[in-house]
Design goal:
Largest sheet: 6 strands, parallel
GO biological process, one term: secondary metabolite biosynthetic process
Helix content: 40-55%
Mean pLDDT: 93
CATH topology: Rossmann fold
Family: Belongs to the short-chain dehydrogenases/reductases (SDR) family.
Number of strands: 6
Pfam families: adh_short
CATH class: Alpha Beta
Keywords: NADP, Oxidoreductase
Radius of gyration: 17 Å
Structural class: alpha/beta
Shape: globular
Low-confidence stretches: 189-194
Strand content: 15-25%
InterPro entries: NAD(P)-bd_dom_sf (IPR036291), Sc_DH/Rdtase_CS (IPR020904), SDR_fam (IPR002347)
Length: 194
Amino acid sequence: MPRCALVTGCSAGGIGSALVEELHAQGLRVYATARSPAKMNHLVKLPNVTLVTLDVVDPASIAAAVDTVRQDLSSSGDSLDVLINNAGQSLVYPALDTSIDEAKRLFDVNFWGVIAVTQAFTPLLQAAKNGGTLVNVCSISGFLYAPWMSVYNASKAALMSWSETLRLELQPFNIRVISLVTAPSPQMSCRILA
């Protein structure tokens, strides 16, 4: 049986999409998720990749995604071995000019959405035969404080703290928690400047 992974935030051109392609290349069966399935069309032809609609801030969407994945796993006899919380948004704006509503929306996706998805999918990880792995995509911005990104920086710092605490709490359940700290690459800078 191939190992199975679920990745959030798999729109074309992002980290989630690249993770899906790499996991697929390594022989894993992958559930790729995004709010809009149309943004994952580039993944549709990959065998053993299933596209699932998932909005991390919508409880009904999360519940539907869990049901879809649970039923699919049950019919194949597989288990969910890896959950990668990658979905996120950015906000580049001066700290004092950022509205509270904008800040809350960003935290809903980058922090509360991760908690909601993790709580919903952890029972499936607990059923993994050799223990599950939970990966939370954090950011160097949680440590290095770039101007104009105060709310984003704060959301990623909160995620890192929560993730590291969760690592300790899930150890007894044979679930590994990894805080994956990402940073901009030269290629990303070229795309931004282009």
